[in-house]
Amino acid sequence: MNRKERRRQKKSISQNQVNSSLLDAIQLHIKKDFEKAENLYLKVIKNDQANYQALRHLGILYNDTKKYEKAIKYLTDAINTAPSIPDAHNNLGLVYFVSDNLASAKKLFEKSFLLNNNYLPALNNLTRVYFSLNESEKCLQSAVAANELDPNEYICKLNHALALSINGKIEEGIKILEKLKDENKTDDLFNQLALMYEVSGNIEKSNQYLLESFKLNQNNYAMLVKLMDNDVITEKELNYNLEEKYNDNRFDSLVEKSNLARCLYISFNKKKNYELAGKYLVVSNKLRDEVLKYEISKDEYFVNKIIENFDKEKINIKIQEKNNRITPIFIVGMPRSGTTLTEQILASHSKVHGGGELDYVRNSLEIDGVYDLSKQQADQIIKKLINLDDEEWKKIGNKYLDNLKRINPDNKNYITDKMPHNFMMCGIIHKMLPHAKIIYCYRDPMDNCFSLYRNTFAKSGHGYSYDQGKLALHYNLHIKLMKHWKKVLGEKIFLLKNETLIDNQKAVTSKLLDHCNLEWEDNCLEFYKTERDVRTISLRQVRNPINKNSLGVWKKYSGSFDKMNETLKEF
């Protein structure tokens, strides 16, 4: 044997040893012997720094043990080592998904799927992220594609049910999940069933499944928040003390700690100990803000660019499109400003279909979003919009109307779109759809902001709302922009103040209907009797008559929110 052959043999033996060690590490990992598996993975990587599988599996291990920063490092290294293999892209996407960074998760799942259109894990994860982002059309497309790849797979069936639920077919989704629960009882499945029943108005059934979900995982503090907030369970019924659990400080993530702090806020709030309730609400939101790191300067930049570039002359319509069979009614304003209530009133009319929070404006314009945009994204959107000609605006409007037709089973003449942050796009909506109606909902600034501050939103949505300074600035930017749109569009925008609606429901409802060219119907006064899917935080409130329960609630918390109150501006 010559020297060259001996070197080759030595290299082969070394490689076999590495492969053997890697397989041993994976087996230890499967058995959840994480410490030994970690050490063995690191040993393999020390001998072979470009070992894709070792880097990837170590990243997965760190994700399993909730060491997310390390997971990101090693999975990124794996991607850099073999960028054309889809697995690590998908694995890294999962890390971002569980960390509430949906934008990064979405990009990675899409990249993984692009590398291999038959890679089922990426397709299933894409369905979940689209569901979380309420991108209904894409969610259904990916769910159907996954079902075609493996129609018997449990997760494919579950995801298909979720996709149906946000595409106007919630009853079909419920039927699928009710069947699935007999073959695989998981806390996630019961949670999704609870959500679907809640959206469709069956609160009793929803509470039942919330409780079933929590029983399977009593450390799911996000679930406990809902149970306590909805009076389904009390602290006395738990097998642990909330404050003791919080002070133990044994948390896998800041989000988990934030959720338990929110449970303490709810507990002390129900005991009318508002000083401690306020303390834990502030603590909970500080932790969540630390996770999300929302950059409010991005919103400031985009709002100012919109105002600079879209004046009365720029959004003037030269040709009015006539004889549109469907009239969209846009209900805009800050979240928690009364948009859900307004939609429920209108959807109680025989000629109106309640569309809910639709993402069709953004989709039709083919833009990244309307807030939390980088400077580069904002500049690209502005450049794109100011360069559209009349024919292109018309096509965009027609694309939006085509989307509405898909969710209009009874062929009604009016469809509401209550995506609150469409307030950013009022002038743009006018260019797209000159015949559309625009309703701007607003309320007492502090009541609105406290309602945002005391609630949590799905994944990373409304990340500005967990810091009082950021929330106040975002609210004030919204006021600045709406004053601009009102000046530009005039009577096109109907102003609906929540407190005025509460004080004089019939008169305000009458004016609202007149603005939409709808005749009076008594059902609009008894909106709480209307049975329809409602998919917002306000879904339980709109099942009841108008009341004053939410007015001035923040004042009970003895100084916890005075600073925010001092900085907010009125419309």
Please characterize this protein's 3D structure.
The chain is mainly alpha-helical and 571 residues long. Among the domains are: 231-293; 296-567, Rossmann fold, CATH 3.40.50.300. Helices cover 60% and strands 4% of the residues. The protein contains 27 helices and 5 strands. It has helices at 3-30, 34-47, 52-64, 68-81, 86-98, 102-115, 120-132, 136-149, 154-165, 170-180, 187-199, 203-216, 221-229, 242-248, 254-270, 274-292, 296-309, 339-347, 360-365, 375-386, 390-406, 426-432, 445-453, 468-489, 498-503, 505-515, 562-567; strands at 327-332, 352-354, 414-417, 437-442, 493-497. A 5-stranded parallel sheet has the order 2-3-1-4-5, with helices on both faces. The model is unreliable at 9-13 (pLDDT under 50).
List the defining traits of the structure above.
571 residues, mainly alpha, Rossmann fold, 27 helices, 5 strands
In a nutshell, what does this entry contain?
The protein is mainly alpha-helical and about 575 residues long. It contains 27 helices and five strands.
Task: Tell me what the CATH architecture of the domain at 296-567 is.
Answer: 3-Layer(aba) Sandwich
Q: How much is the average pLDDT?
A: 90
> In whole angstroms, how far apart are the ends?
88 Å
Radius of gyration: 26 Å
- In CATH, the topology of the domain at 296-567 is named Rossmann fold
- How many distinct helices? 27
- Total beta strands: 5
